[in-house]
Design brief:
single chain, alpha/beta, 7-stranded mixed beta sheet, 3-stranded mixed beta sheet, binds pyridoxal-5'-phosphate
């Protein structure tokens, strides 16, 4: 009988089970909403990135249906062959206007946007200077580029400067940070990093995946929040989180975007978005511009929920926005807290190593604009009760 060459995977899975870190996928049986059904249980949902509730917004739904009727369900090609529809170009024009940049190119996901862009703009003789907590898609993009990777401690601008001082002036350098860090909810120190980029002649890049639709005027992101327009050469945003649909984009100069058309591998070698995706994203931009009270509501809910968790005595880290970690340290304890909350009717995902550092395991919560006060209070009561039961708070 043939020996299973993948047997080692089963061994690794058993190890995860022994460590209490094995995760089963939770199955959503309804719409992505603040109160919904996962695994046959009605729960208050604190685990989605659906910040503004746009996954189910009637304007997006309607535009997606209209586009499907008009264009069909798929594009049948990559963008660079036959898969660029007028609706893709309209979305890119609208995003560029929104982001106040010359041009935008849309990718299939935020992951593809980061990985495809970093690997396209850099090569083996170049160097990336990167925050240690930058997203996995940035890290993969850096690896794919074969550039040297220099990592600075989280938000430590002084350490980034020391690294830059050691590099030859003529070497091409990319300084890169998340706008909002996805596991902690804190902001990258953009103004200080832009100063450094200008002083040392770096390309400045910001991944604003969790900031788009959340920070800045009408949700324009952290570049707008920090009034740093014109100081960031490459802005990445996502259409999968607050925008409620799917995709990622790069905003910058016309030359950058045209270069990516020619060199970004996910753009060149992977089929373009279905027309319904592009149409729904355009509708989402209309909502951001015409219904700004939704963003205000997100911030009201964030303040209410975060101060509730703090009053209960939880460690919520350094969050500055709707992503609020409840840091417990031990991986197995984070998973237990998440499981017990789920039984109590609250879905908040446990997150452990390797997604976060060992000893920094947590349950990550994200409130949305569409949570009601009652739902958030219900979740706080559950956190209080389960947190005391597990000895995390007293
Ligand atoms: C900071 C950050 N960048 C990029 C991405 C990737 O975005 P997408 O889900 O659109 O691929 C994510 C999502 O997980 C993220 O948190």
């Amino acid at each position: 009988m043939r020996r299973d060459p993948l047997a080692y995977l089963t061994v690794e899975l058993s190890t995860l089970k022994e460590q209490g870190l094995y995760r089963k996928l939770r199955i959503l049986e309804d719409e992505q909403k603040p109160k919904t059904t996962f695994d046959h249980r009605a729960v208050v949902n604190l685990s989605s990135n659906n910040y503004l509730g746009l996954t189910t917004h009637p304007r997006l739904r309607e535009r997606a249906l209209e586009a499907t009727r008009k264009y069909g369900v798929g594009t049948g090609s990559v963008r660079t062959i036959a898969g660029t529809m007028d609706i893709h170009m309209e979305l890119e024009r609208r995003l560029a206007e929104f982001k106040k940049t010359e041009a935008v190119v849309v990718f299939q996901s935020g992951f593809a946007a980061n990985a495809g862009t970093v690997s396209a703009v850099l090569g083996k003789d170049d160097v990336v200077v990167s925050d240690e907590l930058n997203h996995a898609s940035i890290i993969d993009g850096c690896r794919l580029s074969r550039a040297a990777i220099k990592v600075f401690p989280h938000k430590d601008v002084g350490a980034a400067r020391k690294i830059l001082q050691t590099l030859p002036a003529a070497q091409r350098k990319l300084l890169i940070t998340d706008g909002v860090f996805s596991m902690d909810g804190d902001l990258g120190p953009l103004p200080a990093l832009c100063d450094l980029a200008e002083e040392f002649g770096c390309i400045m890049m910001v991944d604003d995946a969790h900031a788009s639709g959340v920070f800045g005027q009408n949700g324009r992101g952290t570049i707008d929040h920090f009034a740093a327009h014109g100081r960031v050469d490459i802005q990445v945003g996502t259409l999968s989180k607050a925008i409620g649909v799917l995709g990622g984009y790069v905003a910058g100069s016309r030359a950058l975007i045209e270069f990516l058309y020619h060199r970004a591998r996910p753009f060149l070698f992977s089929t373009s978005h279905p027309p319904a995706v592009a149409a729904a994203c355009i509708a989402a931009l209309d909502v951001l511009l015409e219904e700004p009270h939704i963003v205000d509501r997100l911030w009201e809910n964030t303040r209410f929920f975060q101060s509730g968790l703090k009053t209960l005595g939880f460690n919520t880290g350094a969050s500055e926005g709707p992503i609020t970690p409840v840091i417990v340290g031990d991986g197995a304890l984070a998973m237990k807290l998440s499981d017990r909350l789920f039984e109590a009717g609250v879905f908040a995902q446990g997150i452990a190593s390797p997604t976060v550092a060992v000893g920094k395991a947590r349950v990550r919560t994200i409130v949305t604009a569409t949570h009601t006060r009652d739902e958030l209070q219900f979740a706080l009561d559950a956190f209080g009760h389960v947190g005391r039961e597990l000895g995390i708070i007293h």
